[in-house]
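Protein in question filed below.

…
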Amino acid sequence: MGSMDRSTGDLAALSTPARVAAPDEGLTPQELALATRNHGLPLEALRYEVTPPGLHYVLVHYDIPDTAPDGWRLTVGGRVLRPLDLDLDALRDRPAVTRRVTLECAGNGRARLSPRPVSQPWLVEAVSTAEWTGVPLAALLAEAGPAEDAVEAVFTGADHGVERGVEQDYRRSLPLATAADPGRDVLVAYAMNGAPLPPQHGSPLRLVVPGWYGMAHVKWLREITLTATPHTGFQQTAAYRIRQEPDEPGEPVTLIAPRALMAPPGFPDFMSRARVVRPGPVPLTGRAWSGHGPVVRVEVSEDGGAAWTDAEVLRDPAHPWAWAAWHTTWTATPGLRHLTVRATDATGRVQPLTAPWNRGGFANNLVQRVEVLCAPEPEPEPEPEPEPEPEP
């Protein structure tokens, strides 16, 4: 074990502080282990309006807990007038709603930063869309009756671990004004795409917070506690803050920044994932989303962002919390191109052409760039000469 003391109780030695990689430092074994446990959306799966559960991105902070539905209970307590203690049948007996919601990890894009914050090394694939079914959180809170002094709702999951020396259950809070607002469509969900939640997606119960980055969507949900003061737990005040320096308080990560992604055209090189297309018209398609408002514009560039053309954006008003489709046609000519795509939302937020760096690697919505080689069809191989007939 070298010089590190990993004796019982020495959590700080086992669980090291957050850090930024050295300029020439490659991915560490720990980052590769995280990248193996967690997975992103294969970008060709952007073809699906609703992501199949097995293709939906996954981020698990600690372990997937053993959460058998039998005996599972959800409590609603703290600063409430009527505490609740509900099993799954009691939740399913309440009026249910289904919402199509796009989830994106707050660290999506982290590995594209330089210097690189050392953590889960996402590129751009940590996003997916599913249909979540459950009980509106606003209805549960109204039933419990928030006390006059309640200001936040704190959500506790069953996953337990240690992070930066702090042993903890995964726990996050929302302002009560968000949690109790029926218009925010926050759900206590028990189904995904019409089936019970899979283990990696929070079975048997999870929170879904439309428009917010994924850290707010607490999985394996077991407790909701209303508090009279803001929650100051690790995941709220140490993690998920936009910081330039380690000792500053930083700004909290909340709503998803606008992003557009392109389904890679043509076919890929195995190692580089660079694309190959043929000359002529090439359909370009993808998805775009923002937690701040609907995406109103998607632009595509074939020269890395020097010149832009508009794509057509297809929004579905029935699903305001889900990504929008976009499409255009690109006339490919021989040579190497760098296709770039960017989104603008209704608040005027536009994806940047340079990465917004911060120590945690959060909310990096730098534009996607796709390397594409336009090459003619290969010449057909000549037919083999026929074998001469044997002489009689």
Remarks:
- The radius of gyration is 24 Å.
